[in-house]
Amino acid sequence: MDLTFLSFGSLGWGDEMLKGGLMTFAVAFCAYILAIIVGLVFAFLKLSKFMPLRFIGNFYTVVFRGVPELLIIYLVFFGGELLLSKIANGVFGYDGYVSLPLFVTGVFCIALGAGAFCTEVIRGAILAVPKGQHEAADALSLSKWSKAFDVVLPQALRIALPGLANVWQITLKETALISVIGLVEVMRSAKIASGATHQPFTFYLFAAVIFLLITSISNRGFKKVETWSQKGVRS
């Protein structure tokens, strides 16, 4: 293990590794936000009184919780590029190959899997809101939208925070898989650097340190948010 390879500048790979770490965080953060939005939508679908909507919600969570994330990436990236290329060729007469943007593809694929877990976390949190809160909203003659977004959802998100924190950890770790499509995040940077220097242990260990650093900072952030959300709540 030679730490001189982690120096900055033209002689070291430290700057490339840190750039890869920033890319990892960017993908994880964007995918996480998208996953929460997807989770909210499909949680309401699963709680709907209409069977077709419940079927759509259940189908999504069963499929994307059961299919490996790596397989989702392969299907979306390679299958999507092939499909778009055929459409471009058949409809527009374009003979070239259509490539998907790597960052957008990575965020979308990670969000699909994380969104299924967010759906179950949010659905469970909504069901955990006390019945009295629903009855109080009905007594005030609130509309369905007002009841959902002003009464139920704020309380459900407070309950869901620990579960959503776990989903963040899953999302962060899943970003390591998107190196297979060529996006230069921390794992891809470590692979390139270790191949050039023949020092795999050095760079993969540094990649682990970057992941642990992001995890530890984000854990503190979630704990502060949980503490803040509990203010004024009766035990």
Beta-strand residue percentage:
under 5%
CATH superfamily descriptor of the domain at 26-185: MetI-like
What is the distance, rounded to the nearest whole angstrom, between the alpha carbons of the first and last residues? Answer: 52 Å
What is the level-2 CATH architecture name of the domain at 26-185?
Orthogonal Bundle
Explain this structure:
With 235 residues, this protein is mainly α. The chain has a domain at 26-185: MetI-like fold, CATH 1.10.3720.10. It has eight helices and no strands. The chain has helices at 14-46, 51-66, 69-92, 102-128, 131-139, 144-174, 186-197, 200-229. The longest helix is centred in the N-terminal third of the chain and has 33 residues, at 14-46. The mean pLDDT is 87.
Short synopsis of the structure:
The protein is mostly helical and 235 residues long.
Helix/strand layout:
Elements: H1 14-46, H2 51-66, H3 69-92, H4 102-128, H5 131-139, H6 144-174, H7 186-197, H8 200-229
Helix pairs in contact: 1-2, 1-4, 1-6, 1-7, 1-8, 2-4, 3-4, 4-6, 6-8, 7-8
Descriptive keywords:
mainly alpha; 235 residues; flat; MetI-like fold
